[in-house]
Amino acid sequence: MKWIVSSLLLAIGLALGGWFTGHGFEAGRNARIVTVKGLAERDVKADLALWQLRFVRAGDQLATVQAAIQQDDTAVTAFLTRQGLGPEAIAFRNLEVTDRAAQTWGDGKYPSRYIIVRTVMLRSADVDKVAAAYQASGALVDAGVVLGGENPGNNGGPTYLFDGINALKPAMIAAATKNARDAAEQFARDAGSRLGGIQRASQGVFEILPRDKAPMLQADKQINKTVRVVATLEYRLE
């Protein structure tokens, strides 16, 4: 008798297990997931400007070249001061002296023996003053200052940075998440379903883009920028 009861209990257990397993698979097959993206953007203004100015002098007499580069340095400092960018805005100065006669390569023919390049790095939170100074920098050329040095690319203008992105993150993530949920709710209504809970969420990378979307424009060359983030969420449709 005991073994009969045990057999009955085992049979009932197997039957119930099969019922739950079958319905579990059915629920899995019927579960529908919708993936949506939410976008958030903010227009911001750069809060830091960096401007590297390089200017050069060359000649065959070292003392003469040194005196000329010192005059240029004085002219650049005076120009920046007139633009409202005093000595406190100058991050550092660097001096490079090249003696071509001491070089081990080349054929010994060169137009000038000595080349001196002075670099002045400007760092300021007043981005408008830096931009205005750059627009007026032709006055330095008119004064005889040879900008560019041996690497003209270093005088490609100021670089404008935005350092306040951490303060924007909470509000922007909330806005992107809300936009994604609004899209998911619309999808659920169109599908005749009800929106369930979040299955998975992924926050995209915060991007700093140029506000003006013209070709070849770089964000670090524009004072005005756009911060963008895209959130990706998966919802269950019930």
From TrEMBL:
Signal peptide: none annotated. Pfam families: SIMPL. It comes from the Bacteria. This is SIMPL domain-containing protein. The lineage of its organism: Bacteria, Pseudomonadati, Pseudomonadota, Gammaproteobacteria, Lysobacterales.
